[in-house]
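thread: overnight batch results

M.L. [08:02]
morning all. the overnight job finished for the chain we discussed friday. pasting input first so we're all looking at the same thing
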Amino acid sequence: MLAAMACRRSVPPAALTLPAPSDAQLRDMLALAVRVPDHGLREPWRFVIVAGEARAELGRRLAPLYRAANPQMEPAKREKFAGIMERLFLASPMAVVVISRPDRACAIPVFEQELSAGAVCMNLMQAAHASGFGAMWVTGWAATHPEAAASIGAGEGERIAGIVHVGTAVSVPPERPRPDVAALTSFWAPPAA
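M.L. [08:03]
and the structure it wrote out:
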């Protein structure tokens, strides 16, 4: 398991191709994804799968939303980004949208519930890698703009924690520089008297 974690890399959606996970593989991956800390057993997340022909239809809905949300943008630039929205879900054979749905009426802090949704995204990435697939966790305009998020499936009080593109990696990206853990680590000690 540690070796798999040590070699996991994000694979850009454009480098993902068919086959996508089968229904059984996807069920297994989602079952692993939800094995996260979940204070109070709130299950503050859910999934929306975007696959097959639905990918193109969703893009056709997102592009005009982008245009309408950015009327002040220079037209050529606006069209470029609207085109990106139209092709967003076509870049990979499948996307798993992780929706954060915190229970604001319970005593568990919303932030803690949102962290749980983020952990689901990371577990999904690890499960995809361990299952022999490539994956990449993205957000961006489609995940954060309220109308776009609603088109994808986020309801009232929900937010998109991540769009996880999944498929078979055409190639494995090269290793990138990783943070210097020692430089980012300190040990707490009481202040000097």
